[in-house]
Specification:
alpha+beta; T-fold; 3-stranded antiparallel sheet; 8-stranded antiparallel sheet; globular; 344 residues
């Protein structure tokens, strides 16, 4: 479930001061400055803006790519040799010990599945393929009723027997995990945490539109992110948020879909087995961890305007809903989201 991409806004000037230690006479040491590193991962692009010395950039770029490659190797259903793909092909009754990162993401996904009564479900992979949004290939028509009924028998997070302490997961037979609605956010967290561990205190990490930021730009201003207005132009924004120690993720029905008798979004409701058919155009979530923001944005989109807003308010989630009301788009935010907007 590829998430819709919030747009980012950049403006900066100046640089941080040079290190306190004086360089050897005759040699110049560049002060840390703002740099941008880019690469590819998870079928999309990654971008990191960070304040660092130029001499460190090559090592930082390698480390960022290594973080993301590890997520792909464990959790990409598009890679036949990944840990998740091997699990999905495994025989019924087989027991699998998961890598630590995979286990952490699955534990979070299952907790959200339980808390939303299955509106979010990491075992939705069979449906993802059936509707043409997965590795099996795209198509532009709804599946036949018999095929849909068969696929739905494989989708139920309660069938998964997971032992978090031992990182053991049972394949009950036909279970097809799809963590694409949470793994991208986890990848952002991996990169941000790794950068902080390297002493990079000021950075903005983006993977396919999911973002997390720490610190400030060299001119002392905050990292500011503009949330895309569904169907709007490049200069239109549903909201602008300042990030510091905070992540943002958006799920929407306007990025990946096909039209037949109606619009069929890539966001699937595991309870019905079909793409969402509600008034939600997009949901944006703020959270310290991008993994949680990513998954919550999908869960709230599936829950819909009324139930989703009620859930977000009960859980004190900072969320922005953009709803279709006739021909108009109407934004509705939780108190936590409104408070963040006021800090910009």
């Amino acid at each position: 479930m590829t998430q819709a991409k919030p747009q980012t806004m950049w403006s900066w000037s100046g640089a941080l001061s040079a290190p306190a230690a004086a360089p050897p006479r005759g040699l110049a040491v560049a002060a840390p400055a703002l740099h941008t590193l880019r690469g590819a991962t998870m079928g999309t692009a990654w971008s990191v803006k960070l304040v660092a010395s130029s001499a460190a950039l090559s090592e930082l770029e390698r480390g960022i790519q290594a973080c993301l490659d590890r997520v792909v190797a464990q959790m990409s259903t598009w890679e036949a040799a990944s840990d998740i793909s091997r699990y999905n092909r495994a025989e019924a009754g087989s027991l699998h010990t998961l890598p630590a990162e995979f286990a952490q993401v699955l534990a979070s996904a299952l907790a959200l599945a339980a808390d939303t009564d299955g509106a979010y479900d990491p075992s939705v992979g069979t449906l993802t393929d059936l509707w043409g949004f997965g590795p099996a290939g795209a198509h532009a028509q709804a599946p036949e009723a018999a095929s849909l009924a068969q696929a739905r028998t494989c989708v139920d997070w309660r069938r998964l027997r997971f032992e978090p302490a031992q990182r053991r997961l049972l394949q009950p037979g036909g279970a097809y995990l799809d963590l694409s609605s949470i793994a991208k956010g986890y990848g952002v967290d991996c990169v941000a945490d790794w950068l902080l561990a390297q002493g990079i205190a000021d950075c903005l990490v983006e993977v396919g539109g999911e973002l997390r930021a720490h610190g400030r730009k060299p001119d002392g201003t905050a990292w500011r992110v503009a949330v895309e207005q569904p169907g709007g132009g490049e200069d239109e924004a549903a909201a602008v948020i300042a990030l510091d120690g905070l992540s943002i993720a958006t799920s929407g029905d306007y990025r990946r879909y096909f039209d037949a008798d109606r619009r069929y979004s890539h966001t699937l409701d595991p309870r019905s087995g079909a793409p969402i058919d509600n008034a939600v155009a997009s949901v944006t979530v703020l959270h310290p961890q991008c993994m949680h923001a990513d998954a919550l944005a999908t869960a709230l989109t599936v829950l819909g305007a009324h139930a989703g807003m009620a859930y977000a308010n009960r859980r004190d989630i900072a969320a922005l809903f953009v709803l279709r009301e006739g021909e108009a788009l109407v934004a509705r935010a939780t108190p936590g989201f409104v408070a963040r907007q006021r800090r910009v």
